[in-house]
Design goal:
heterodimer; A: alpha/beta; 9-stranded mixed β-sheet; 15 helices; 9 strands; 14% strand; globular; B: alpha/beta; 7-stranded mixed β-sheet; 12 helices
Chain lengths: 395, 334
């Protein structure tokens, strides 16, 4: 049974946050450090000043509640008991919407569905444009979903709980979209529930290992550049990943105790992973607030990395690709871009679109482009039109 | 030219109230349940943090710790110039009154500090009159705890080494010996490389190097290739691999984004406590019991600095590491 949900942070929590922000202490910084050592001090001071005076959480909360219809329901996960899961759920404005499960990543949240939901559910006014019923889950440990209480809640479990949510909503067949961790979850859904339930999947992050007999000399210039960007990311931008994957609890104490610390940890990625997206301070603070006020606290979400790293499901582990049709949207500032020759390891790519702008947070940075791709992929004339029985996105 | 100024640790009451207030309102995260024996798998468990924080709130007396430090250690600061920067270097200095005393510089690392030299102070006056006495010097790394931080990028190990060497010269010690672990060992190795006629003896407990070169050390490489290790070597290699795989996230983040992590650590006393406490748990023998007053004092020393310098050293130093280490020849004394 689902319960309607409205975000309603207590005034105690708000004032506790306020007093922490007011007593915030900053480290020093080297002269002309820029972004070379991490988030610049000037950015932090500006954001914290706004957080202290000006940023209005109650207003943001109200906007979110008005825009996004939210619910919670209990879902049983094998071996973990019942977890109360938070999600956004909006049906199409007209016709029979294609059921689409959107899965967020880190440091994102259900918020990442905010801009694409109206486009997906309303359509474009063009009768050729399909519409969707959208479900945006908050993964356990994120947003307002409960966190698992014991170890071992890994990809398989995230996959299971996401699938069960769609079934609980009456969608025995559905399609998925995911980036960042959401890409891994939706790939897992495609693998385990593909065919009978998940009918097609779309992602903006492709990852697989190179095939045997791979020939690097055949890579295009942009493929080489994409691989170089991945190498640089591993060299200088993946410290968070190492820490999340090994000591999430240790890091968690400071993220949960210092809003400034949490802000820096998240803001660094919002800026470095996006394509010059003009983040407003309030936008950043809203994203960070979701973590600060999350039901399980900011530390719970990062356990995702630890569990995956220790469950034999780490990135790069060999596994057979899903067989259901797959679509991908390539954005230039995504963290990784694999050569086309590696695609067979990812899945059965029937739709591919490449863009000249956009980064890791595709749904937030370029909602029109992403939705445009989904419309092409799933709409009339598209490679997977009508893939969900009886729900083709039209009347 | 500057000379050493006596130093007494005496933090401002504003700072102390800030720490007290933050500790009292600390948000300790919940934990998942852990199978017995696996409590530390995800980092320092809540079950270990809670008693530490409780002690911090109710029993920890910083002013008493300050008094003990001031009574135990003769401390000074001195302004030393290096590469266009002036560092206010904090150090401990205990002179021996025996005529044949040798100067010894003790170099701490992370997350250590000058207080680790406590067990060496008795070397100024060994009970056995035939035993070698030492003058003891223990600086705080620039950017750590009580020494000021450099203000420009690029202040790596070789510059820190020069600062240490200048300190010894200022104290009248033209030749000296050294003892160091963690960063201390790297700094002293750099002193030995740059000032070989001054650092005449070096004891390090953190030797790090690269595998042998095939042409220079063919036999050693052969044993390595066929993975023939003595049981002791095997044990050490396994530990090294385990450390790299499971325990070096802190190093990876500090050598790539030291500023980012420092916002969290400097603004959260319990965050800093967790960061430090976890690492010292695993860097010692299993049955070693850390005294809570010591753990909290170490944490305070890092908070007092207010600097991201202790994280930045990783980035500055790693970019300076040579592809192959130089061969150090150390001239024996006498």
């Amino acid at each position: 049974m689902s319960n309607s949900f409205k975000i309603a942070v207590s005034s105690t929590a708000l004032s506790a946050l306020k007093s922490r922000i007011e007593s915030a202490t900053f480290p020093d910084e080297l002269d002309d450090a820029g972004w070379a050592y991490g988030v610049p001090l000037a950015d932090m001071k500006r954001l914290v000043a706004r957080w202290r005076d000006g940023f209005d959480w109650r207003q943001e909360e109200q906007k979110l509640n008005n825009e996004l219809p939210q619910f919670t329901r209990d879902i049983e996960v094998d071996g973990f008991g019942s977890l109360n899961v938070h999600y956004v759920y909006k049906k199409s404005d007209r016709g029979t919407g294609i059921p689409l499960l959107f899965v967020h990543g880190w440091p994102g949240s259900f918020l990442e569905s905010r801009k694409i939901i109206p486009l997906l559910t309303k359509g474009s006014g063009d009768s050729q444009c399909p519409v969707f019923d959208v479900v945006a889950i908050s993964l356990p440990g994120f947003g307002f979903s409960e966190a698992p209480k014991k170890k071992g809640f890994s990809l398989s479990q995230y996959v299971e709980v996401s699938h069960k949510l769609m079934i609980a909503l009456g969608y025995t067949e559905y399609v998925t979209q995911g980036g960042d961790l959401g890409s891994r979850v939706t790939a897992g859904i495609a693998r385990r529930y593909g065919g009978m339930h998940s009918k097609a999947w779309h992602t903006n992050v492709l990852f697989s290992m190179p095939p045997e007999n791979d020939d690097p000399s055949s890579y295009t210039a942009s493929e080489k550049e994409g691989l170089a960007r991945w190498q640089e990311f591993q060299r200088s931008g993946s410290g968070y990943f190492q820490l999340h994957s090994t000591k999430p609890q240790t890091l968690g104490y400071s993220l949960a105790d210092s809003p400034v610390g949490l802000l820096a940890w998240i803001y660094e990625k919002l800026v470095s992973w996006s394509d010059n997206y003009p983040w407003t301070d309030d936008e950043v603070l809203t994203w960070v607030s979701i973590y600060w006020f999350s039901r399980a606290g900011p530390a719970a979400s990062i356990r995702f990395y630890y569990e995956v790293a220790h469950s034999g499901q780490a990135l790069g582990t060999k596994s057979s690709p899903p067989t259901i049709p797959m679509g991908c949207s390539l954005f230039p500032k995504e963290l990784i871009r694999i050569p086309k020759s590696w695609y067979p390891g990812v899945g059965d790519v029937v739709f591919e679109a490449e863009h000249d702008k956009g980064g890791h947070f595709a749904a937030h940075e370029q909602p029109e482009l992403l939705v445009g791709d989904l419309r092409k992929m799933f709409g009339k004339g598209g490679p997977v039109y009508g893939v969900v029985t009886g729900r083709d996105g039209y009347n | 030219m500057s000379s050493p100024k006596p130093y007494k640790l005496d933090v401002s009451s504003d700072f102390l109230s800030w720490v007290t207030d933050r500790v009292n309102t600390a948000r300790i995260i919940p934990d998942i349940t852990h199978p017995a024996g696996e409590e530390w798998e995800y980092g320092i468990p809540t079950a270990a943090m809670e008693p530490l924080v409780e002690y911090w709130k109710s029993n920890f007396d910083w002013r008493k710790m300050e008094k003990q430090i001031n009574e135990t250690f003769n401390m000074y600061t001195i302004d030393l110039e290096e590469a266009g920067e002036v560092i206010s270097l904090h150090f401990v200095h205990h002179r021996s009154d025996r005529p044949n005393a040798i100067p010894l510089i003790f170099a701490h690392g992370w997350p250590g500090n000058f207080t680790e030299v406590k067990h060496l102070l008795k070397l100024t006056a060994p009970e056995d009159s035939d035993a070698q006495p030492f003058h003891i010097v223990a600086p705080s790394i620039p950017g750590f705890t009580l020494s000021s931080s450099p203000s420009k990028p690029g202040f790596g190990l070789s510059k820190i080494a020069n600062v240490y060497h200048k300190l010894m010269l200022k104290l009248g010690y033209e030749t000296y010996m050294g003892q160091g672990g963690d960063w201390g060992s790297f700094i002293l190795r750099s002193v030995a490389l740059q000032h070989p006629s001054s650092l005449v003896g070096l004891h390090i407990n953190f030797p790090v190097t690269l595998p042998p070169k095939p042409l220079a050390n063919p036999t050693t490489l052969f044993w390595l290739a066929i993975r023939y290790f003595s049981p002791e070597e095997s044990k050490r290699l396994k530990r090294m691999q385990w450390f790299l795989k499971n325990e070096s996230g802190y190093s990876q983040i500090q050598r790539t984004k030291p500023q980012t992590i420092s916002y969290a650590l400097q603004d959260s006393p319990i965050g800093m406590l967790a960061w430090i406490r976890e690492k010292i748990h695993l860097a010692t023998e299993e049955d070693y019991v850390w005294d809570t007053d010591i753990v909290l004092t170490w944490t305070m020393l890092y908070l007092i600095s207010g600097s991201a310098g202790s994280a930045r050293i990783y980035k500055e130093a790693i970019s300076e590491f040579p592809k192959r280490p130089a061969h150090i020849t150390v001239k024996p004394p006498g």
